[in-house]
C-alpha cells in the first residue's frame, strides 16, 4: 500500500465495475503530474550533466572525477530516469484517453466549436510554419510598455471572440447543458485561451532564436517557460472559480481548490522571478520578461471576465420549463451584448485603418494587427450568425417552417456575390501608382535631373556619359588602363535580400570610399571626389527584394550628394552626419499592408470606390515613411538621375537602376529604369515607363519588382488615358537573379566602348540554402568534363501519387523558375571567364565581351546557409536586425562561403590600391 501511494498516489472515491472506472479510481492528475515533473527534471539533470557539473566543479568539488569513478552508474541512472518518465507519461495518457472516452459527446462539442478551432489552426500555421510568422514572434520582445498594453488588450479581444463563437455553437448543439458537463462550460474558454498559448509559444521560439544557449536543459527551459506561464495562469483561474463559487463544489472541494489556487499562484510568481533573475544576469532578451507578464496577465484577465459572465450555476436536468426559458433568454442576451460589443471594436479598428493604415501599422506592428484580424473575423462571423439565427426564428414564427439558419446564411452569401461581380466589372482594385502629383527629388546640388520619362537616355548614351565621368577619376590612379565598368546583379528574397544588398553596398562604399583613396585621388588632380565606388558603378540590376535594397541605396546616394554625409556601414562611425541605407529597411514594412489586406482589400471587393488605398499602395507608403529622409522614396523615379546631355561639369554620375518585374499576361520582363529599354539591348522586354507613359515613384518602381504573391497584389498597368496594359507581378517569376539584364548591359557597354573598359560584374544572392555544388557560382569553375550529379530525392508527403498529381504542376513551375535563374547566373560567370573554351550557355553571345584587353571578371557574394535563418517577408524584428548587424551574422557572412576572398578580389579589380601606387602614395598629406 505504501509503495503504491508513493508511486501513483492513493485511491479516490469508489471504483465502478468497468475498466474505465478502475482507471479513473486509481489514476489521478494531481498525483501523476507532480511525479511526472520530478521524473522529467531528474532525467534532464542526468542526461545533460555538463552544465551543472561544471558549475559544481568551480564552486564546490570536482564532481566529474567522482562520476568518472562511479561509471557506469550515472548512465544507468539516466536510463532508469527515462524509463520512469515514460511510465508516468503513459499513465497520464491512459487517464486522458479514458476521460475522453467517458465523455462520449466530445465529437459533437468539437464540431460545434469548429469555426474558432479552425481560426486557431490557421493562426498556428502562420505563426509557426511560416518564416515571416516566426519572425513576428521575435517582435513580441521588441515592444515598449505601452505596446505591451495593446498586446494585452488585443489578445483578450481575440480570445473573447473565439470564446463567443464556441459558445454560440455549443448553445445550438446542446440547448440544455447540465452541471456535470464541465467541457461544455470550460471548452469555449480553453479555445479562447489558445490565443494566449499561441502567443506564448511564438515568444518561446523567438527567444530560442535570440539566445545562444549551448546546453540542452537551458534551451528546453527557455522553450517551455512562456507556455508553462499560460498553463499556470489557466490553472489559477480554474481553481479560483472553484474556490469562490458555491455551486462548483462542496466545502471540502472548495478548500482543496483554494490550496491548489495558492500553489498555482506560487509557481507562477516563482517562474516570473526566475525569468527576472535571468534578465538581471543578461542571459535572455530584455523584452522576454515583459512579454511573458503581459500575455499571462491577459490570459488571467480573459478567463476572469468569462468566469464573471458565467458565474450563474448551470441548470440541472430537473429544472422547470420557466427557469429553462429564462436561462435561454439570459444566454441569448449575453451573446448579443458580447457580439455587438466585439463588432463595435472591429468597426472602430476598421475605420482607423481605412483612415490611415500606415499610422496604425507603424504604431501597433504586424503581430498585433494579425491578432486583431483573427479576432475581428470571428466577431463579424459571430454577429452574422446571431442575425441569421434570429431571422430564421422569426420566419418560423411567421409560419415559414422551412427557413433555417443555414438558409439565411445562403442568402447572406448570395447578397455578397452580386456586389463582388458588379464591383469587379466596374473598377480596378490595384492600379500601379502613377506620378501625376508626385514631386521630384530635392535638387539643392544643382544636378538638373531628368524631367520627363521620354527624355531618358539610351544605354549607349549612358555608357558614354559614365565613361566621361569615370575615366578621369580612374586614370588619376591607373593611367592608360581599361576602366572597370562595374555592374551589380542582385537577387530576390524579400527583406533578407534587401538588407543583404544594402549591407554589401555599404561595405563596398567603405572599401572604395575611404580617406586614403580620396586623398590619393585628390593628390592626382581629383580634389572633389567620392572615392571609386559610385564613379565606377554603372548600374544595378535588381529583382524583388534586391530591387528594394537597390532603391534604398539610390535614395541614400541622393541624400549623400544633397547633404554630403557618408554612405557608411551601419556599425562604423564617421565624422559629421551620415545616411545609412539599411535604415530604410528597419521599419515594419508589412504592418500597413497586412492591415489593408484584412480590413480594406477584402471589404473593397463588395464596395464601390470611396478613394480607399489598397495593400500595394500601403506597402509603398510604409517604405516611404519608414525612411530616415522624410519621404525621399515618394519622389519621382527619374528625378534621382541627372540629365546627362548637359555639360559634364554640372552633374555627378548616379548608378543606374534597372528594376526587373514580370508581365503577367506574356511572361516577359518589364523593366523600370531611367534608361530607355530598347529591344536591341534587352531582348523581348517591356519598358515600364513607356508602357505607362508616365513616371512613377521610386517606391513604386521597387514595389513593382517585388510584388510577392498574396502579400502584395498584382499591379494593374493603367496609363493616364485609362488604357489597360495587363498586370505586373514579382520579377522572380521570370528570373530571380537579375543576371539576364546584367549581361545584356555588359554586352551593350562593350559594344559602345570596346577595349576602353573592363566589365566587372558582381552577383549578390540571398538564398541561405546555397551550396557550392548547387547555386554558389564562382568564375571559371572547372568540372573536368564530369556530368551533373544525380538528384537524390528526399521523401515528402507529395511523393504520394494522389498528391503528386495535384502538386506537380506548381512544384515544376517554381523549380523551373529557380533553375532558369541559376542558368542565367552560371552563364554570366562563364561569359566573364578568362578560359576561352568556357561555353556561353544560352544567355547571349560572348564574343563582344571577350574582346577587351583584360578579360571581364565575375564575383559572387552569397548569403549561404547559416544556423540562424532570416525571414523572406517584409519585416525584421529588432532582435534579428541586431543579429544582422553583428559581427557573427551579415557582416560575418562576408567572411563565409569564400565571400571574404571574393570581396578582396573585387575591390582590387575596381582599383583599390594594395598598396597605393608609389606616385600617389608619396603625395598623401
Distance between the termini: 94 Å
**What proportion strand?**
5-15%
Count the DSSP helices.
Answer: 32
Radius of gyration equals: 33 Å
Helix content: 55-70%
Per DSSP E runs of 2 or more residues, the count of β-strands stands at 11
Instruction: Name the poorly predicted regions.
Output: 50-63, 568-577, 834-853, 916-925
Largest sheet: 9 strands, mixed
Give the overall shape, derived from the CA principal axes. Answer: globular
Summary keywords:
925 residues; alpha/beta; 9-stranded mixed sheet; two-stranded parallel ribbon; 58% helix; globular; disordered C terminus
Structure explained in plain terms:
The protein has 925 residues and is an alpha/beta fold. 58% of the residues lie in helices and 6% in strands. Strands 1, 2, 5, 6, 7, 8, 9, 10 and 11 form a nine-stranded mixed sheet that branches. A hairpin with a 5-residue loop joins strand 5 and strand 6. Helix 8 runs parallel beside helix 11 and helix 23 packs antiparallel against helix 24. The longest helix is centred in the middle third of the chain and has 41 residues. It starts with a helix and ends with a helix. The C terminus is likely disordered.
Question: Secondary-structure blueprint of this entry?
Answer:
Elements: H1 2-8, H2 19-26, H3 29-47, H4 50-59, H5 63-70, H6 73-102, H7 106-112, H8 114-128, H9 131-139, H10 145-173, H11 182-210, H12 216-244, H13 251-280, H14 286-309, H15 321-355, H16 357-397, H17 405-426, H18 459-475, E1 483-490, H19 494-512, H20 515-523, H21 533-536, E2 537-543, H22 545-563, E3 566-567, E4 578-579, H23 590-604, H24 615-626, E5 656-663, E6 669-673, E7 685-687, H25 688-692, H26 698-705, E8 715-718, E9 724-729, H27 739-753, E10 757-765, H28 801-831, E11 857-862, H29 878-885, H30 890-893, H31 899-909, H32 918-921
Parallel strand pairs: 1-2, 1-10, 2-5, 3-4, 6-7, 10-11
Antiparallel strand pairs: 5-6, 5-9, 8-9
Helix pairs in contact: 3-6, 7-10, 8-9, 8-10, 8-11, 9-11, 10-11, 10-14, 10-15, 10-16, 11-12, 11-14, 12-13, 12-14, 13-14, 15-16, 16-17, 16-23, 16-24, 18-27, 19-22, 22-26, 23-24, 27-28
Amino acid at each position: 500500500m505504501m509503495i503504491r501511494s508513493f508511486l501513483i498516489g492513493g485511491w479516490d472515491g469508489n471504483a465502478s465495475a468497468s475498466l474505465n472506472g478502475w482507471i479513473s479510481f486509481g489514476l489521478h492528475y494531481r498525483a501523476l503530474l507532480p511525479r511526472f515533473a520530478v521524473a522529467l527534471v531528474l532525467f534532464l539533470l542526468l542526461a545533460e550533466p555538463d552544465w551543472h557539473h561544471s558549475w559544481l566543479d568551480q564552486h564546490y568539488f570536482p564532481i566529474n572525477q567522482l562520476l568518472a569513478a562511479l561509471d557506469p552508474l550515472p548512465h544507468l541512472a539516466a536510463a532508469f530516469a527515462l524509463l520512469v518518465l515514460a511510465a508516468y507519461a503513459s499513465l497520464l495518457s491512459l487517464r486522458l484517453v479514458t476521460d475522453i472516452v467517458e465523455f462520449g459527446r466530445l465529437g459533437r462539442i468539437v464540431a460545434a466549436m469548429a469555426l474558432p478551432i479552425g481560426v486557431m489552426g490557421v493562426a498556428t500555421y502562420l505563426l509557426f510554419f511560416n518564416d515571416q510568422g516566426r519572425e513576428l514572434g521575435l517582435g513580441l520582445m521588441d515592444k515598449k510598455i505601452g505596446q505591451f498594453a495593446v498586446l494585452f488588450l488585443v489578445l483578450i479581444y481575440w480570445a473573447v471572440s473565439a470564446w463567443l463563437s464556441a459558445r454560440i455553437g455549443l448553445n445550438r448543439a446542446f440547448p440544455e447543458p447540465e452541471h456535470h458537463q464541465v467541457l461544455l462550460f470550460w471548452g469555449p474558454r480553453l479555445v479562447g485561451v489558445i490565443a494566449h498559448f499561441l502567443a506564448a509559444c511564438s515568444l518561446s521560439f523567438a527567444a530560442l532564436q535570440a539566445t545562444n544557449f549551448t546546453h540542452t536543459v537551458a534551451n528546453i527551459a527557455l522553450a517551455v517557460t512562456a507556455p508553462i506561464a499560460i498553463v499556470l495562469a489557466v490553472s489559477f483561474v480554474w481553481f479560483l472559480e472553484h474556490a469562490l463559487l458555491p455551486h462548483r463544489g462542496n466545502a471540502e472541494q472548495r478548500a482543496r481548490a483554494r490550496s491548489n489556487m495558492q500553489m498555482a499562484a506560487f509557481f507562477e510568481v516563482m517562474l516570473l522571478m526566475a525569468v527576472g533573475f535571468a534578465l538581471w544576469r543578461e542571459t535572455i532578451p530584455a523584452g522576454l520578461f515583459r512579454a511573458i507578464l503581459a500575455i499571462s496577465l491577459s490570459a488571467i484577465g480573459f478567463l476572469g471576465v468569462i468566469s464573471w459572465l458565467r458565474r450563474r450555476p448551470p441548470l440541472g436536468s430537473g429544472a422547470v420549463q420557466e427557469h429553462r426559458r429564462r436561462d435561454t433568454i439570459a444566454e441569448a442576451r449575453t451573446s448579443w451584448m458580447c457580439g455587438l460589443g466585439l463588432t463595435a471594436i472591429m468597426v472602430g479598428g476598421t475605420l482607423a485603418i481605412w483612415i490611415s493604415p500606415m499610422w496604425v501599422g507603424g504604431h501597433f506592428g504586424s503581430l498585433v494587427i494579425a491578432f486583431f484580424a483573427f479576432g475581428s473575423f470571428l466577431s463579424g462571423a459571430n454577429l452574422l450568425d446571431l442575425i441569421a439565427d434570429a431571422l430564421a426564428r422569426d420566419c418560423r414564427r411567421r409560419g415559414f417552417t422551412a427557413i433555417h439558419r443555414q438558409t439565411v446564411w445562403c442568402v447572406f452569401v448570395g447578397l455578397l456575390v452580386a456586389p463582388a461581380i458588379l464591383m469587379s466589372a466596374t473598377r480596378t482594385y490595384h492600379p500601379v501608382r502613377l506620378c501625376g502629383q508626385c514631386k521630384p527629388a530635392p535638387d539643392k546640388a544643382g544636378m538638373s535631373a531628368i524631367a520627363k520619362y521620354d527624355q531618358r537616355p539610351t544605354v549607349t548614351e549612358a555608357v558614354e556619359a559614365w565613361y566621361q565621368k569615370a575615366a578621369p577619376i580612374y586614370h588619376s590612379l591607373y593611367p592608360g588602363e581599361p576602366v572597370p565598368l562595374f555592374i551589380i546583379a542582385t537577387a530576390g528574397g524579400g527583406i533578407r535580400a534587401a538588407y543583404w544588398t544594402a549591407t554589401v553596398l555599404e561595405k563596398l562604399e567603405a572599401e572604395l570610399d575611404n580617406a586614403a583613396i580620396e586623398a590619393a585621388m585628390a593628390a592626382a588632380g581629383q580634389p572633389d571626389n567620392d572615392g571609386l565606388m559610385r564613379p565606377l558603378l554603372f548600374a544595378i540590376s535588381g529583382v524583388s527584394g534586391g530591387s528594394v535594397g537597390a532603391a534604398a541605396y539610390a535614395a541614400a546616394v541622393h541624400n549623400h550628394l544633397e547633404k554630403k554625409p557618408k554612405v557608411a556601414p551601419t556599425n562604423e562611425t564617421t565624422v559629421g552626419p551620415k545616411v545609412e541605407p539599411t535604415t530604410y529597411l528597419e521599419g515594419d514594412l508589412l504592418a500597413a499592408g497586412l492591415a489593408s489586406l484584412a480590413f480594406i482589400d477584402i471589404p473593397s471587393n463588395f464596395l464601390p470606390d470611396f478613394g480607399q488605398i489598397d495593400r500595394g499602395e500601403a506597402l509603398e507608403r510604409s517604405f516611404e515613411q519608414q525612411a530616415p529622409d522624410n519621404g525621399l522614396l515618394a519622389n519621382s523615379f527619374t528625378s534621382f538621375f541627372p540629365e546627362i546631355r548637359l555639360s559634364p561639369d554640372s552633374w555627378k554620375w548616379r548608378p543606374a537602376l534597372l528594376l526587373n518585374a514580370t508581365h503577367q499576361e506574356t511572361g516577359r520582363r518589364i523593366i523600370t529604369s531611367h534608361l530607355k529599354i530598347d529591344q536591341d539591348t534587352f531582348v523581348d522586354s517591356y519598358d515600364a515607363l513607356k508602357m505607362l507613359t508616365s513616371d512613377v515613384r521610386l517606391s513604386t518602381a521597387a514595389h513593382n519588382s517585388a510584388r510577392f504573391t498574396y502579400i502584395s497584389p498584382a499591379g494593374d498597368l493603367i496609363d493616364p488615358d485609362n488604357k489597360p496594359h495587363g498586370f505586373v507581378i514579382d520579377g522572380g517569376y521570370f528570373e530571380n537573379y537579375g543576371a539576364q539584364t546584367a549581361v545584356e548591359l555588359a554586352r551593350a557597354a562593350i559594344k559602345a566602348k570596346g577595349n576602353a573598359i573592363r566589365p566587372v560584374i558582381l552577383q549578390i544572392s540571398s538564398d541561405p540554402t546555397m551550396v557550392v555544388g548547387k547555386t554558389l557560382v564562382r568564375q571559371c569553375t572547372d568540372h573536368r568534363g564530369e556530368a551533373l550529379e544525380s538528384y537524390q530525392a528526399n521523401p515528402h508527403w507529395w511523393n504520394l501519387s494522389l498528391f503528386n498529381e495535384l502538386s506537380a504542376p506548381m512544384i515544376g513551375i517554381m523549380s523551373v523558375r529557380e533553375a532558369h535563374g541559376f542558368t542565367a547566373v552560371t552563364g554570366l560567370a562563364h561569359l566573364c571567364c578568362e578560359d576561352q573554351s568556357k561555353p556561353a550557355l544560352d544567355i547571349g553571345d560572348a564574343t563582344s565581351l571577350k574582346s577587351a584587353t583584360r578579360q571581364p571578371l565575375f564575383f559572387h557574394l552569397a548569403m549561404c546557409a547559416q544556423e540562424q535563418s532570416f525571414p523572406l517577408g517584409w519585416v525584421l524584428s529588432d532582435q534579428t536586425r541586431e543579429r544582422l548587424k553583428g559581427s557573427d551574422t551579415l557582416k560575418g557572412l562576408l567572411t563565409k562561403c569564400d565571400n571574404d576572398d571574393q570581396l578582396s578580389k573585387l575591390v582590387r579589380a575596381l582599383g583599390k590600391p594594395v598598396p597605393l601606387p608609389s606616385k600617389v602614395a608619396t603625395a598623401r598629406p
